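Structure ticket #2291
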Amino acid sequence: MPDAARFYGLEINRAGFAACPFHPDKTSSLKIYEDHYYCFGCGAHGDVTDFTARLFSISQYDAARKLNADFGLGLAKQAPSVPVKQTVSPEVAYRNWLHSAERILNDYLNMLCRWQRYYAPKTPGEEQHPYFVESLTKMEQYRYLYEQIRFGTDAEKRRLYLTEHETLSKLAERMKQLTAAKSTVKRKAI
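Resolution: structure written out below.
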């Protein structure tokens, strides 16, 4: 069940929760277990076939065929007679983006706050560290985006989804690079 949920676009946290794609979910109320799922918000539940059927709005039979094709299970020797829809619905993609964007922005803003404290010049004539400068120049822009995603209306969030998708993708990539660089430094110190 966790493999299928991740494959179809859900971001599962360490506790096994994800934003439920079956209702507007701000609190990650969908619990993903090894063999089933249960949403504490809307009550949706079932096994991996039920999940796939509901996510893609297809029958149980087509969901089983889709899982077979997507994961190479080798359960059917013949090709499916009816093509199975292969994409996540736009609404599910939007909800997943909101959840991911909020997490990325929160992590980045916390990092900027740490940089402001840690890299602040100790004397007036000291050269400013690039991380300190970045924290000063980027804080307001990303705080605004975070507040819009967290507290804005649905119309405002959808506008950001259309206009800021690329900005947040670049930020996510930068966060990965910063995290990788940080872990490399820690390994060298050991």
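Closing remark: The CA atoms of residues 16 and 123 lie 47 Å apart.
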